[in-house]
Amino acid sequence: MVNSRANSEGIRYSHISSNEGKDWLTKQENDLIDPGCNASFIKYNYGKYKRKGLLILSSINNSKIRKEIVVRYSLDEGESWSKPKIVYSGEAAYSSMTILKNGEIGLFFEKDNYTKNVFTSFSLKWLLDIAATSDFYTLKRIKPVDVIILYR
pLDDT per residue over 16-57, tens digit each? Predict the structure, then answer.
């Protein structure tokens, strides 16, 4: 599966192959609104979820502007997606996720009109159990860590 943005359409697309990429089925994801921004998509393959169909997507939850980064999950390998859970409600853009050694999900993203790159993490329990309207930073009472990237 590949999940991609569609510039100016306000939604995302999923592309699925059942024969190792020889043929693809493209599916419009009307529930995954997006202004045309890079997202992150991982298969959660840790602990009791190894070899299961749990996918996690971080993306922008706005069809017009790059604002409100959210995470969603799918328990059926992308056939359907959960309601979005807000990670940051301000300006946000590209994101990248990873599974940490302790099983939490690490999320790195751009925020505040591209002035900061931040890293934060959340538990699978938070993603699967807490109400979709809850704000992540309020729940954990933490702020993301600002990351300074130096280029040579």
Answer: 888 998 999 888 888 899 999 999 999 998 777 766 778 999
Residue 30 lies in a domain: no
Asked whether residue 4 is assigned to any structural domain, the reply reads no
Count of structural domains within the chain: 1
Cβ atoms < 10 Å from Cβ of 131: 8
83 CB neighbour count, 10 Å cutoff: 12
Handedness of CA 78, 83, 87, 93 (dihedral sign): positive
Does 17 map to a domain? Answer: no
118: phi then psi, degrees, rounded to nearest 5: -125, 155
The closest of 6, 105, 10, 5 to 55, measured between CA atoms, is: 105
Tell whether 110 is covered by a domain. Answer: yes
Residues in the chain, how many?
152
- Amino acid occupying residue 48: K
pTM value surpassing 0.90: no
